[in-house]
Amino acid sequence: MEGIQRYTTRQSEACKLYVTIMKAKYDLAVKYDLETRLWRYGIYAAIEKLRAHLKMEHGQLTDGVRSAWKKFISTSVALYVDLVAAFKAQWPSIRAGGYRRTAVSPCWHRSVNYLGDLKRYEQMYLKSPDTPASGVLDWSISRRYYREAAILCGESGLYHNQIAIVSNYDEHFLESFHAYLRSLTVKSPFLSAKDALTILFKTVEKRLTAAKLSRRRGIVDAQMMKMDFIRMHEILFTKVSTEHFPTYLSEFASQLKYFEPLVTSDSDEAALVFLQFASANGSMSQLGKFTATSEQDRDPLKDHLVSLAMHVMTFCLSNLLKSTSSGDENFASLSQGGLLYVWITLFWMASLEEAWLTYLQQPRYVHFWSSLANFCNALQSVMAEGESARTTLEDVVGVEILPEDWELNGSMLFTGAFRSKEFQSLLHRDAAEVDSLVDQHLDSRGMARLRAGDLNATRRRLWRILQVSRLLCPKISHLTYNEETGRFSVVTHVEPIATLGEPILVGVEEEEELEYVPHIGEESTPAGSEVDVIVDEAVQGLMEAKRQLNSAIDSRNRFLSSHKSEGTQSSSRMVPGETTIVFDTNIYLYWLDGIVDLANSGDWVISVPLVVVSELDGLKNSDDDVGLAAKRAVQFLDTEFGTGMESERSVRRKAWLKLQTSQGNFLHDLRIRTEDWTTQESAHERKKNNDDVILQCCWYFMQNARQPKNVSPVVLVTDDVNMKLKARTMGIDVRDRTALKTLRGERD
Predict the structure, then answer these.
(1) Cα(745)–Cα(728) distance, rounded to whole angstroms?
(2) Cα Rg for the chain, rounded, in angstroms?
(3) 639 sits in which H/E element
(4) pTM exceeds 0.85 for this model
(5) If you ran DSSP here, which 8-state letter would residue 43 be given?
(6) Which of 142-146, 392-396, 655-659 shows the lowest per-residue confidence on average (mean pLDDT)?
(7) Which of 147, 157, 159, 436 lies 20 to 30 A from 168 at CA?
(8) Could you tell me if 734 and 721 are in contact, meaning their C-beta atoms sit under 8 angstroms apart?
(9) What would the pLDDT profile of 464-496 be if each residue is shown by its tens digit?
């Protein structure tokens, strides 16, 4: 205990010295990045020691040791509070000095984030021993600090990632999902959030699997619906199990009624749910694995995303139209969640590239555009007399900043309109005014104040819906606006014989005659009937096997047709820097020295499937020669990739070595060592073996090939005969370990 007390005291004294220098010489602090050094060497180094101590003591600390660490945390918090106050006092001179690192955001945003980290670590590691193991921990202080940092510097993905972490602790999965997407779609993205998203998807999938019985009994709640929403976005993000999307969407659409309490609520929390829905859809349009860019080559994933957005939009508009028909001229009874979803989604649609517009103008969405026109015509009273339409999205947003704008600021999706002029002018005021602005937007729990009951904010949201709808009219052929009458109308084209006459103009009064016909796989379940998507596992497995077999045959045919002029597959060359090599597990066991030589040469890109690491971890405990070989292989991989420990962060990794998951993501280190397929919906997916996963990793490079046709994008090295047959069926270049002996010769 005395050793811990001496260590924490020494660290605290070092931290005080850093703070003293930064308070006295801000230019020196910027030049040498003392703020980062303070955290890394003063605070975080101690936190790593605390973690190691907890692990050694199996999570149980004596009262004296706990008291010493609590004192260190509280001292560190006090230091950062003092540092933030000093930065605020120097803010006027800092702005006048024009330091590059603080030219955009208030200079104390990083220290505010560190305060959030300290309060989070205090909850995680130093909770009172009297707190039950199942006791609910309070993350509100950490969330408040993180969200404040995100307001002060919306372009940093780190702060949104930290918000996602504490939301995960509270099992607020939608908020966590939204924050992870935000962290990846800002100017300075936090790329590790991709790996965290993968973990979140698995957690949600397990929860939905456990909730199947409740769903079959008709027990569905809003939390389950939020997880359904995340599950559909997982398909868009990973491009895995895309064939299930129509089923999930049909189920989700038929159960939107369970959101009625949320969409009709006037609370900020309810409104925030729909803001997160809309923002997530927009972010996914940038992050999803979309491929096609032209109308001739349609992308089903884009179609899926638009369908999801339209279903929720139609649901929100339906509720809003009910409220407008009640004769409320002040629109006080309108759903704020619905308004937020509608205007943000319209904003997203107006920001989309031209390649997306064809997906928005499909005939099955005429009913939606008709509902929008009807709603907009009921809103004309919110427009000032003689007010002209805005010509750009920036003009629409720049009139007045609303609370939700702070939730979207920094996102690359809205960069075209949120050019940060107004945001920067607000954040460059005196520190007291900036603090007041933050307090207006955040409550004590760190939740956004969206002013759901504010009539002025309601009318500004309605005004935005009108203005963005006008901007959409030239882009969307179904929607028109008449400047003379000031009314919106819907155009529906005569199909399939469009040459018989001019397009038919349908006024909104005729809206009820327009029938909304969903596309195949998107049909809603009739009212009163149960949704039953449970299929016999044997049949489902056969269907999945048939689909994969057809896919493999098609892939093989495409591969052969593209290589006819070059002879057989073996004529493809392995080229350093162009060809990625994937080694099967048996090569790591019996030819590790060859792999090590190639890895050290730096001439070849080597991808290590995470499932290979899992197999080696399972084999290393054996007492025979295989176990010894597996231990050597694991030591090699741990050395090359690291295990995520703080002490390894200064080690320079080899850029040509990659650690790959089955979903096409690449990990930075081996903190995550396994993948789990038991939560997959398909029985065939649950029974997938490790060979299939390694082949899936190889297929990723085939799909994303940019090499000339006579160069192999990927080569699988294995001595497994069955695996060779599977690989050749898929068109993957496969060789045995004798190739290792010739690679150096090929290079020369």
Answers:
(1) 24
(2) 29
(3) helix 625-641
(4) no
(5) I
(6) 392-396
(7) 436
(8) no
(9) 899 899 999 999 988 999 888 888 998 865 343
